[in-house]
Specification:
153 residues; mainly alpha; three-stranded antiparallel sheet; 6 helices; 3 strands
Length: 153
């Protein structure tokens, strides 16, 4: 049965732009998640935590990860449990506060992150990187910066 040709109708340009952002985020996120799970058994939420950890020279407070990622504090804790079980992160206590948990990637975690990041880039190549030129990327960066400056939680 052929698909019906449905559309958003007469939405205002700003509404259409908003739903375009939602569509792009949802579609690209699902594509990357599928690729990471298939290639590395690594959900995107795990990759996101590793992304924030990979370039840090010092262990990061778990609460700081919760503030930076798109995950809740309890989700960060569950992801950290799973990553630790796979030997990809280490937990330690903060020198100044024994109640504060700090997290760092292990050497194995850095290796898995590098492989997963290559998979992420490959998954996005034809549907993002190859379609957008440098001007498009700069425009997107300008939009994200404006939206992030007025972030409402």
């Amino acid at each position: 049965m052929p698909r019906a040709d449905i559309n958003l109708g007469d939405l205002a340009a700003r509404d259409h732009a908003f739903y375009g952002l939602v569509w792009a985020g949802t579609t690209l996120t699902a594509r990357v998640d599928r690729a990471l799970v298939r290639a590395h058994d690594l959900p995107l939420s795990w990759f996101e935590v590793m992304l924030w950890l990979h370039s840090q020279s010092e262990p990061v407070a778990a609460s700081d990860l919760g503030a930076k990622t798109l995950l809740s504090r309890s989700q960060v804790s569950r992801v950290a449990d799973a990553l630790q079980a796979r030997g990809l992160i280490e937990r330690s206590t903060a020198p100044s506060d024994a109640r504060s948990v700090r997290i760092t990637l292990t050497p194995a975690g850095h290796e898995v992150f590098a492989a997963a990041d290559a998979t992420r880039r490959q998954a996005l190549a034809e549907v993002f990187n190859d379609l957008l030129d440098d001007d498009d990327i700069q425009s997107l960066e300008a939009v994200w910066q404006k939206l992030k400056q007025h972030r409402v939680d």
